[in-house]
Specification:
Elements (H helix, E strand, L loop, with lengths): L1 E4 L5 H13 L3 E6 L4 E6 L15 E5 L19 E3 L2 E3 L6 E5 L6 H14 L3 E3 L18 H13 L3 E4 L6 H7 L2 E4 L7 H8 L5 E4 L6 H13 L5 E5 L17 H6 L6 E3 L1 H5 L2 H13 L4 E5 L17 H13 L25 H33 L8 H13 L7 H33 L2
Parallel strand pairs: 7-8, 7-14, 8-9, 9-10, 10-11, 11-12, 12-13, 13-14
Antiparallel strand pairs: 1-3, 1-4, 2-3, 5-6
Length: 449
């Protein structure tokens, strides 16, 4: 800390500042200048003398080190890895996708969602038990009974579960049923709750407050760290600004800023950050691109009829398409990705005469329709053989096909258009596989007594 005295400050005023600093067990180094006197304050916890600016003759007090110690890169240069069961978050590990409903509404809704997001590659399941809502008449969640449903979903799918705790007295019960305690945006400044989760043995996902600065957010993390819990994951979920086109303003610049200030992992929540379903995918990809360690995505079996935040929840197909994009861009990997070869047919000989050429085109169109249907049918057959919880598509084979298309073949279609065509074919095949899985789940549900 540096204390800058006013021009003309008396020796008595300088001595008083020096006395107060030393009374708090710190050292004061006085530097006399032609116009001003500067006092350097050195020692641990210099925040104890943050009130020096109120003393007579003091012009300003300048912090040299950050007020958050345990969260700072100055305290720990190596990035923190938070382990949640078998899932590693941060420290250069693969980006983690946490997905699930905003609020747990029923056993069927939660289990259907858990099975689907696991199938698509999510590494953890989210689900709200208590939902702090602006209106007292809005759905507030099922409360503590939802914890048992989350534990059941974890047992069936193997996915660690994340849920928001709002009451310090509930921390012990949350510890028994969930794997990550979430502190929501409205509770970022609930210091009693922060200290309570800081005494928990579970990792904590700390969301940024509605209007919190970076420093305030890190100081909230400091409360948890100083209470003894080193496993803190930060989550950017948008802040309140003057803009009304989106629910919040998703501050993606916070990700690289935080990476320059703290060793803690940082995630992005594009669902709350935008509040609009069609914006979730693009902002999720943007969050991954700026270096987020994970994404928090809201997924619901029937978003239009969701009891909480349906407008920002992805349906099953939409979530699958987002995961496909994340895999295609190498943000998400799958260990079971296989190898494969794709062959490109040689150009056919062109017949003479316009009518004959058009007849050839018609014949090819008919054959293409049949081939596309056959390809989709084969993709569904692969899905059937792998079962409803497996993945019918092979990411590495798809990348190889798109790579070949990007390299292009001799002909009038440029590589960019070939890539777009094959990308559409792959998306159609995946959609057919997902419909098959959904139909299988529906058939199983119908057969159950």
């Amino acid at each position: 800390m540096i204390v800058v005295m006013r021009p003309g400050a008396t020796q008595q005023q300088v001595s008083e500042v020096q006395r107060v600093v030393e009374a708090h067990g710190l050292e004061a180094f006085v530097s006399l200048g032609d116009e001003r006197t500067v006092i350097g304050v050195v020692g641990s916890d210099v925040e104890r003398v943050a009130h020096l600016g109120t003393l007579p003759g003091v012009d300003q007090v300048i912090r040299v080190s950050s007020p958050y110690k345990l969260a700072s890169l100055q305290d720990q240069a190596d990035r923190t890895r938070v382990r949640v069961n078998s899932v590693d978050v941060g420290a250069g590990h693969q980006m983690v996708v946490i997905a699930g409903p905003c609020a747990v509404e029923s056993r069927e809704q939660l289990l259907d969602t858990a099975r689907w997001v696991r199938r698509e590659g999510a590494r953890m399941l989210r689900g709200g038990t208590f939902k702090p809502r602006t209106s007292p008449y809005a759905f507030q969640g099922l409360g503590l009974p939802a914890l048992r449903l989350l534990a059941e979903a974890r047992q069936e799918t193997g996915l660690p579960v994340v849920s928001e705790v709002v009451d310090p007295s509930h921390v012990e019960e949350f510890d028994e049923h969930v794997d990550v305690l979430q502190v929501g945006a409205r509770n970022m400044h609930n210091f009693v709750l922060l200290r309570a989760v800081g005494q928990s043995r579970r990792p904590v996902l700390l969301k940024r407050g509605l209007s919190a600065t970076i420093e305030e957010w890190l100081l909230a993390a400091e409360y948890i760290l100083s209470a003894g819990n080193p496993n803190v994951i930060l989550c950017e979920r948008g802040i309140r600004t003057f803009e009304t086109a989106t629910r919040n303003t998703l501050d993606l610049s916070a990700v690289p800023v935080m990476r320059s200030k703290t060793h803690l992992p940082i995630m992005v929540d594009p669902s709350h950050g935008t509040g609009q379903r069609h914006l979730v995918g693009p902002m999720a990809l943007a969050g991954a691109a700026v270096g987020a360690d994970g994404l928090l995505i809201e997924v619901h079996p029937d978003p239009p009829n969701a009891r909480s935040d349906g407008d920002q929840s992805l349906g099953f197909d939409e979530f699958g398409q987002l995961m496909d994009e994340l895999r295609r861009l190498h943000f998400v990997r799958r260990e079971s990705e296989g190898e494969g070869e794709v062959t490109v047919a040689a150009p056919m000989e062109i017949a003479a005469g316009v009518d004959e050429v058009r007849h050839r085109i018609d014949d090819l169109d008919a054959r293409l329709i049949g081939l596309l249907q056959e390809r989709a049918a084969l993709a569904v057959e692969v899905q059937r053989r792998r079962g409803p919880d497996g993945h019918g598509h092979d990411v590495r084979r798809e990348r190889e096909l798109l790579r070949r298309a990007a390299e292009g073949a001799n002909g009038p279609i440029p590589p960019s258009e070939l890539t777009a065509i094959f990308g559409a074919v792959l998306r159609a095949s995946r959609s057919a596989q997902r419909r098959f899985v959904q139909d299988s789940h529906s058939a199983d549900a119908t057969r159950k007594p």
